[in-house]
């Protein structure tokens, strides 16, 4: 890999991760003189004013995981960052370096990585008879290295300053490369009061202008177009695709069609930016369809105009530039530098030829900000020069960059026989738009695939003879074969076993499985699943992306089906996820993990049907495949209590616990049976014994403690509630997802019941919940509990932010959570009548949120409070009488007596 800046790092990341998944051993040699890999020139700047000109949400290293960079920022000191924010360029360099380092670490034992801090100055290819082409790379320090594959990630060509008069090029006051280390030191030191001329008005010029800005100094900028980059919108609109086919149009017709497209978007949205952004997906296609003459005309007449509108300034940068221009600290001219002469004090007198006539400026420094050269054929770079001279590379269209076949270089004879690739700026002539991360990361993935493809072991054949000796594959606990080796399968089985028993340690076991085999699709999918639905500390998007990559490379139908289920539950609507899960269980009824996902007991949110009939049907249909196993019996017990068949549910739960005393699902079903029967003393005692023994290693201990606390609230044993809070449910004893769902909801119930006196520690619960969980929850079930906690805290702005998120989320959040937030806002603002009406309308729709009836009951508790506060005591009495007909509750009986007196 020649070059370890952004492009080189992106290819290296893909190479390491793909090789680790496929177990392809090789040596990766990174050749780059920079002190740190990943930064290159673009991301080495230390000036915090230099920001990315693309929003953080579009700067991920991975084409299939667009939120990766945003999540990295959130975990590295910027927890509130959003996808539309523009991060510092130096931070992006740190992200690239960190992601590359992690990829190298993950590939240890498969990929050996070495780094040489020097430059490659030549590349000579030889082919032995009957062998593959081999490259000999000549290095600036005199060494040579050999390689079977070469990727040239050299970035843009350096500016050659051909525009500058010869006298200026030899002057010490001329800065030919402003990004070279220390290049601007003199202009920032004693001469920081002298004016500066920047030749070029693009994004480089804007960055350098901000760096050189000082009180009393004027930064002059000049270019032929005289245009500064346009600004990104503060509140950007989505890209608007062009409805007119543009491919193959002659340039005049293309120009007219694009103008019409922009006009339509302007009339609809009042902004041209969505129109330009909508052209991005088809830019390369349009460029490829143009003739050489049309391309040359476009570059000459419209290239500058396109660049200033396509490559825009971040809003904060535009604001800073605007202040500089309004205060006359920055002045821009359309024209060119005509001549320079030295002044007696050593500074320069520069003459500009502008449309308004000649202009002479006294400046201390002239800085070349014209950006990279377009014509690689004119390069002085010795490496590219050697490839062009020996015919291993040929110039691209308009002599911009080089000619390639999807990144693989064409030789002078048009062949692509050498295993030699490039990406990014050297493909400018072919693609026109090829210098931004979204384009480069896609090219990096393609190149990594091409580099490793000859070494990839053949897949099992579909119908012909065996491509390799077939070995017996390990199986999971349900008997399905796994596309992995025995050690990873053992770790996976342990993780699934802990999930099924609702015991701690599942994430650790699953992480070990994918560490042992990075290409194990089911391991990654299970991690994504428990992160999404169980609140486990998992980067869900990353795990899902890894699962989808791995399943494309080696998997059978069962594994592909399961990964599809997880992907649809994470990425799509609840209905789509349910459809995929039902289809999977129809095909593979013995899949215990999938069955656990389908049934809303304790670990997963389950199928989102309104009355539970679908989940019940799944449990009953899959019974023959499980032959009365303790796990299936546990789920059936839970479904029977949801039906109100409490005697049968209790018997089934006891049967499962007799077979597996640690079964959390069975104990959970029994807890519900006790609560719904009104057996509060027996329920509290049984939960206490289980928690002290078999439940000690449970992963949802807080939820069982919550169940015990519900009994204590019903018994009006407030001292026991406070004691249980302190010992089992307070932050520190519980954290993350369970703190929100169990601890937060218990506090609100206790407050509504008048069972909490003294300081109210809901703020401690909120401190344990990540901002994303509170304001952008992934599921309606989590959103319900976020709304409860925010209400308990009296956080009206937080509730409103949650409502805005819900209106943009899935259908259940839109139809249930958003109006629930409105009703809770009415509670906080003491609009009791409106709150009661809103909650009454919502009660029939609550089952769609998921979870159990006991969990959703908190909304009815809030409704009772609102009814009494609104003076609607008859309605409150009716609801309490209905509940007491179903189950005994000393607390409800006392409330009813108080309302009747």
TrEMBL record:
Domain FAD-dependent urate hydroxylase HpyO/Asp monooxygenase CreE-like FAD/NAD(P)-binding, first and last residues per copy: 2-155
Residue segments, region Disordered: 458-480
Protein name from the UniProt record: FAD/NAD(P)-binding protein
Pfam families: NAD_binding_9, TPR_19
Source superkingdom: Bacteria
Signal peptide: none
The organism's taxonomic lineage, starting at the top: Bacteria, Bacillati, Actinomycetota, Actinomycetes, Kitasatosporales
InterPro entries named among the record's database cross-references: HpyO/CreE_NAD-binding, L-asp_N-monooxygenase_NS-form
């Amino acid at each position: 890999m020649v070059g370890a800046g952004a492009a080189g790092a992106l290819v290296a990341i893909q190479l390491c991760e793909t090789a680790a998944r496929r177990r392809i051993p090789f040596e990766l040699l990174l050749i780059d003189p920079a002190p740190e890999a990943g930064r290159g020139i673009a991301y080495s700047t230390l000036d915090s004013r230099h920001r990315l000109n693309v929003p953080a949400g579009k700067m991920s290293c991975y084409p299939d995981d667009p939120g990766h960079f945003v999540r990295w920022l959130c975990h590295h000191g910027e927890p509130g960052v959003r996808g539309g924010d523009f991060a510092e360029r130096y931070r992006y360099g740190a992200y690239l370096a960190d992601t590359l380092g992690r990829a190298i670490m993950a590939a240890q034992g498969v990929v050996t990585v070495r780094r040489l801090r020097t430059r490659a100055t030549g590349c000579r290819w030889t082919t032995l008879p009957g062998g593959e082409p081999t490259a000999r790379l000549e290095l600036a320090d005199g060494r040579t290295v050999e390689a079977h594959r070469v990727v040239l990630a050299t970035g843009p060509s350096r500016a050659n300053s051909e525009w500058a008069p010869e006298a200026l090029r030899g002057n010490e006051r001329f800065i030919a490369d402003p990004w070279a280390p220390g290049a601007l030191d003199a202009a920032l030191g004693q001469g920081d009061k002298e004016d500066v001329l920047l030749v070029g008005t693009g994004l480089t010029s804007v960055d350098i202008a901000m760096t050189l800005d000082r009180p009393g100094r004027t930064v002059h900028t000049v270019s032929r177009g005289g245009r500064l980059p346009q600004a990104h919108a503060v509140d950007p609109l989505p890209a608007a695709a062009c409805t007119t086919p543009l491919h193959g149009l002659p340039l005049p017709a293309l120009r007219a069609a694009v103008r019409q497209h922009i006009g339509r978007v302007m009339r609809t949205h009042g902004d041209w930016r969505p129109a330009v952004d909508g052209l991005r997906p088809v830019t390369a296609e349009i460029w490829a369809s143009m003739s050489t003459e049309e391309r040359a005309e476009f570059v000459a007449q419209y290239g500058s105009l396109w660049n200033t509108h396509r490559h825009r300034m971040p809003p904060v940068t535009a604001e800073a530039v605007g202040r500089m221009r309004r205060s006359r600290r920055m002045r821009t001219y359309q024209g060119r530098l005509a001549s320079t002469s030295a002044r007696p004090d050593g500074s320069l007198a520069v003459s500009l030829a502008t449309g308004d006539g000649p202009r002479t400026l006294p400046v201390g420094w002239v800085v070349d900000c014209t950006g990279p050269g377009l014509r690689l054929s004119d390069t002085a770079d010795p490496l590219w020069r050697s490839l062009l001279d020996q015919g291993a590379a040929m110039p691209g269209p308009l002599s911009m960059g080089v000619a390639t076949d999807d990144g693989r270089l064409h030789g002078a004879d048009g062949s692509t026989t050498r295993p030699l690739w490039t990406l990014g700026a050297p493909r400018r002539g072919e693609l026109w738009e090829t210098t931004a991360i979204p384009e480069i990361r896609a090219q990096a993935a393609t190149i990594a695939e091409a580099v490793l493809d000859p070494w990839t072991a053949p897949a099992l054949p579909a119908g012909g003879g065996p491509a390799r000796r077939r070995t017996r594959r390990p199986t999971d606990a349900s008997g399905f074969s796994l596309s992995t080796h025995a050690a990873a399968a053992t770790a996976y089985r342990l993780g699934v076993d802990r999930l099924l028993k609702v015991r701690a340690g599942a994430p650790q076991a699953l992480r070990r499985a994918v560490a042992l085999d990075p290409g194990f699709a089911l391991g990654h999918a299970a991690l994504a699943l428990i992160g999404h639905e169980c609140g486990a500390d998992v980067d869900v998007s990353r795990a899902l992306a890894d699962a989808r990559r791995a399943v494309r490379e080696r998997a059978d139908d069962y594994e592909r089906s399961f990964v599809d289920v997880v992907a649809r539950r994470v990425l799509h609507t609840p209905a789509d996820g349910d459809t995929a899960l039902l289809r999977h269980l129809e095909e593979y009824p013995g899949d215990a993990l999938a069955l656990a996902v389908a049934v809303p007991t304790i670990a997963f949110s389950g199928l989102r049907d309104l009355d539970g009939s679908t989940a019940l049907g799944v449990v009953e249909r899959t019974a023959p495949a499980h032959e009365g196993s303790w796990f299936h019996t546990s789920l059936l017990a839970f479904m029977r209590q949801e039906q109100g068949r409490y005697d049968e549910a209790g018997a089934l739960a006891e049967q499962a616990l007799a077979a597996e005393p640690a079964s959390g699902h069975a104990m959970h079903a029994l807890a519900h049976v006790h609560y719904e029967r009104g057996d509060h003393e027996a329920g509290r005692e049984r939960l206490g014994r289980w928690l002290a023994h078999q439940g000690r290693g449970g992963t949802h201990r807080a939820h069982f403690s919550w169940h015990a606390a519900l009994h204590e609230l019903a018994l009006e044993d407030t001292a026991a509630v406070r004691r249980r809070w302190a010992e089992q449910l307070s932050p520190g004893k519980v954290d993350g997802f369970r703190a929100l769902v169990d601890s937060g909801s218990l506090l609100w119930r206790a407050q509504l019941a008048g069972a909490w006196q003294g300081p109210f520690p809901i703020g401690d619960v909120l401190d344990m919940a990540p901002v994303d969980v509170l304001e952008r929850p992934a599921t309606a079930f989590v959103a319900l509990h976020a709304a409860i906690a925010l209400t308990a805290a009296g956080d009206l702005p937080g509730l409103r932010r949650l409502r805005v998120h819900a209106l943009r989320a899935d259908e259940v959040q839109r139809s249930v959570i958003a109006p629930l937030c409105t009703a809770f806002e009415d509670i906080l603002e003491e609009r009791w009548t409106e709150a009661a009406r809103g909650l009454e309308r919502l009660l029939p729709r609550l089952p769609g949120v998921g979870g159990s009836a006991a969990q959703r009951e908190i909304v009815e508790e809030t409704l009772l409070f609102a009814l009494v506060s609104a003076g609607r005591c008859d309605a409150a009495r009716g609801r309490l009488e209905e509940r007491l007909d179903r189950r005994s509750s000393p607390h409800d009986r006392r409330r009813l007596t108080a309302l009747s007196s």
